[in-house]
Amino acid sequence: MDFLDLYEHAATQRSGLAGFYNRNVRVQTEEGPVLVRIRTPSSESMDLACWNEADLLAALDGHVPAAPRLLHAARNPDFQIHEYVSGRRVDELAPDGKPLPDAVLKAVEGFFGTLLRVPRAALPPTRADWPPDGDTPAFAGMLLELVRHIRHRSDSAVSNLYEALGVPDDPCCVLAARAHRLSRRPFRLLHADIHRKNMILAESGRVAFLDWELALWGDPVYDLADHLHKMSCTPADRQTLTEAWERSAPDECREGWRADLDFYLDYEAMKSAVVDTVRWGRRIAGTDDADERRRLSLELAGKLAAAQPHWDDDAPTVTEPGEIEAVVGRCLPRT
């Protein structure tokens, strides 16, 4: 199997599922299909990262059976080749807001249990400034600092958009005042991006969990909060998944977890508004479809409304879709 040839073929294809940081293309070989994963060079980082994804996947072999098997990785050009998991994405089986199949609910519980028991020695090293094991307030502080960085690194057009929509200069100050009260828990491996598009229900009944680029070494309660935030679950599924995490977690990971879950859920709502003001704003500015602009404006309005209780600022947040569309039109150039 000539991996470079596979990459060069995949790079010419328009098909494939594109995320914020990578594009995934199915390529047929004589041995069967593989997935070519190509890094998007112009992607703007909006998430915390801990490891190189290929290094992590190599380390997980034998520890996390639900992770895709890494066949090859290269840095220049930047691509990976994974096993191809035949099946259906969970978002195709059950879109946002719809009940999840029982097989998926059971698989998520098992997946959490596996992640929480991966030994630290099996994982690649973290960078020198990573919080020490168990220092959950420092871990939360790192998450908050990421949002502050996103809020202030923008060009003048995006800065004007933030200001016009009422996103505070420091969107983290309320949550920062709560972070020191987090219970200390031992750190564990977190996937940190478990949502419907990152799960494949295979024909065998196996559920594969994809896209490990955002995996972290940190507070295990954050992984549950991130999952619940991104899944758009029914109330029943939300309760089932929360109870599943509680059953899966070792005793030492459950110290004060319920109160801290609320903190991380509030963080996710706040972060989503800051990040998606940029992402949704650009999508609104980039379409000529009036219905699409209205739909995106309505979605951004919901994100801003959900974040507003976690902000301490005198400026009112804009949460009316028509006004959001008008503000984007004034602040962002059409693309």
Q: The CATH topology of the largest domain, please? A: Aminoglycoside 3'-phosphotransferase, Chain: A, domain 2
| Element order: H for helix, E for strand | HEEEHEEEHHHHHEEEEHHHHH
The averaged pLDDT comes out at 94
CATH superfamily of the largest domain: Aminoglycoside phosphotransferase (APH), C-terminal lobe
Residues in helices, as a percent range: 40-55%
SSE-based structural type: alpha+beta
- Tertiary shape: globular
Number of domains: 2
Topology, number of strands: 10
Tally of separate helices: 12
Residue windows where pLDDT falls under 50 for at least 5 positions:
none
Q: What share of the residues does DSSP label as strand, in percent? A: 5-15%
Sheet with the most strands, sense and barrel status? 5 strands, antiparallel
Radius of gyration: 20 Å
Strand order of the largest sheet: 1-2-3-5-4
CATH architecture of the largest domain: Alpha-Beta Complex
Please give the alpha-carbon distance between the first and last residues: 40 Å
Which CATH C-level class of the largest domain is it? Alpha Beta
How would you describe what is shown here?
By secondary structure, the chain is an alpha+beta fold. The chain folds into 2 domains: 3-88, Phosphorylase Kinase, domain 1 (2-Layer Sandwich); 90-331, Aminoglycoside 3'-phosphotransferase, Chain: A, domain 2 (Alpha-Beta Complex), CATH 3.90.1200. Helix content is 46%, strand content 14%. The chain is built from 12 helices and 10 strands. It has a 5-stranded antiparallel β-sheet with strand order 1-2-3-5-4, sandwiched between helices. It has a 3-stranded antiparallel β-sheet with strand order 6-8-9. It has a two-stranded antiparallel sheet with strand order 7-10. A hairpin with a 2-residue loop joins strand 2 (22-29) and strand 3 (32-39). Helix 4 packs parallel to helix 9 (235-248) and helix 5 (136-152) runs parallel beside helix 10 (257-285).
